[in-house]
Every structure is written in C-alpha cells, then in structure tokens.
Amino acid sequence: MALGLVTLAAGCKNGASSSLEKDAAATTDGVAAGPETSGAAVSVEQPLPPASVEAYVNPAHLPVYQGPMGSIEGTVTIAGDASPDTTHRDYAKCRGGELAYGKLFREGPPRPDGARPVADVLIVVTGYSGGYLPETKPARTVTIEGCALSSRTIDMTIGQRLDVRNLMRDKIFAPALLQAPSYMALVASPSGDPVSLHPQAPHPYTLYDRFGAGSAYLTAEVYVLLQPLHAVTDLEGRYRIDGIPAGPVKVNGLLGVVQKEATKAAVVQPDLVETVDLELTYQAPSKE
Question: How confident is the model at residue 43 (pLDDT cuts 50, 70, 90)?
Fold first, then answer.
C-alpha cells in the first residue's frame, strides 16, 4: 500500500528515532490516522487556523532548522508492462483531455534498458534531523488548460491553500475536493481568478470538477503532507527538492494511481546536489 506519506511527521529526529516504518504504521491503507472525512460538509473555503497548522506540523515545538542544506534531484522510471488505456471515459466534448488522461499513468518512451520515465510520481524526503522545517510558500497552484490539469498528482503542505486557475477561454469548472464535501460550488471562470481550496487535515484527497459535464475524467490526486520536502515528477520523470538538511535521509516515491512505490537512502551534502534516481515496476492485472 502507500508509504504512509501523508502522515510523515516533519521527518526530523529529536532524540527518538523517526522511521518510515513507524510513520507507515500510523496509517490504514495509506490514509492518515486522525480526523476522518465523514461525509458531512467541511469548510474548505477558509484557511486552517495557524494554531491547528502548528499542532500538525510541529507538535513538539522544535526550533526551526538552521544548519547546512543541500538538494536532491533525479529521475523516476518505471519498468514492466506499459501503461494501459483508460476505459469508460468520454472525451468527445474536450478532445485535449485524452492526451493527459487516456492512459492509466503517463510515461515516456523506453530507454535502452526498457525502463520509461514516469510523470506524476510523488517524491517525499524523510528521515532528516536537526529541527523543524516550516513551509515558506503560502499556496500550491495548478492550472486547467487543454482540458487537463497541469499535473495529475499535486503535492502540498498542510496550511497551504490550493489555487486552481482556469486558463481555458470557453469552459467553466467547479474544482472541489471529493473527501471534503462543501455546500458551495466555487467556480473557476475562463481566464479569471483562481479558486482557492484549504484542506483541513493531512490526508490524500481527490481534486475533481463538480460540474463534470463532459469532464468527469478531470481529476488529480492531492497529497497534503506534514513537511515541505516534497515534489512531483514532470513529463520527463524528473524532480528536484531544495533546502534539505545535510545528513542521511530517505527518498520515497509513490505512483498513487497504481500504488507502486520505491525508497532509496541518500546522504545530503551541504551546498551540493545529490542525484537519486528511483525505479518502479508495474505489472498489469491479469484479465482472467
């Protein structure tokens, strides 16, 4: 199952060990333990109060990390069976959507060894030590263009808002989080102001269009995490994460749509960029 990435505490060690295994044990099928989504309306139109954010991201009230930092970058590839076609989806009203959603996952052409670069993989760095890392960006922005979201996986830190901007000129959308139902339909008008959503707990969510007429396929996995050391691979399978405390860490990758994951240990050097490549393996389900 998923790595338990939504429950990875700040990833730092303050005397006691902080392992991926312990973090994963706090989840059920990769869903964060704690506040549940019961189906009752939840306010996603207002920011989470600062005290609530602090309780999630820094419950031990650790000092902000002030030590040396480095970066990690790399490429994620996938081996095994090719991405299958998606079925029961209607792209007739917006043919551009088929380019982004016509396959179960997005992958590039094979390399000599047969592995293909894969997009939309969530990357999270964990296991660092020395203090608390606050999120410095107030928002995570995604766009709708060509009948598709700019990424099929969205990485966020709890306390950030999710801004969804509609760059299409002739269509309107009502972006919403499936696991946080609301009475209000917030409309992203053509080339207008973004719709802002405020997830209320670290959790995996699904971003979708409440209007859905002709665009029911337009969805993304949203991972709301407890610390800012995360990224998503681009169409060439590449990622980069800066501002990582120097020392030993773990680099974790998750392709959520098929629940494939990989983890690799690394050592971050001050003011240097470490290359960490990951490989996933996909086997299509048997048709029998």
Answer: low
How far is 276 from 91, CA to CA, in rounded Å? 37
Structural domain contains residue 204: yes
pLDDT (0 to 100) of residue 103: 94
| Residue 73, domain extent | 5-35+43-282
Q: Residue 8 has what pLDDT?
A: 47
Say what the pLDDT of residue 29 is. 28
Cβ atoms of residues 245 and 125 within 8 Å: no
288 in any annotated domain: no
C-alpha to C-alpha distances, 58 to 50, 52, 137, nearest whole angstrom: 11, 10, 17
State the pTM of this model: 0.86
Mean pLDDT across the stretch 38-53? 72
Q: HEC states along 166-188?
A: ECCCCCCECEEECCCCCCCCCCE
- 287 in a structural domain: no
End-to-end CA distance of the chain, in Å?
Answer: 23
Check: CB of residue 174 under 8 Å from CB of residue 192: no
Residue % of the chain over a pLDDT of 90: 63
Q: Tokens for 72? A: 């990690």
Question: How many domains is the chain partitioned into structurally?
Answer: 1
How far is the C-alpha of 188 from the C-alpha of 181, rounded, in Å?
A: 17
Domain CATH for 59: 2.60.40.420
DSSP label at residue 36: -
CA distance 207 to 113: 35
pLDDT band at 181 (very low <50, low <70, confident <90, very high): confident
Residue 93 placed within a domain: yes
**By the 8 A CB rule, do 18 and 9 touch?**
yes
Residue 23 sits at φ, ψ, to 5 deg, of -65, -40
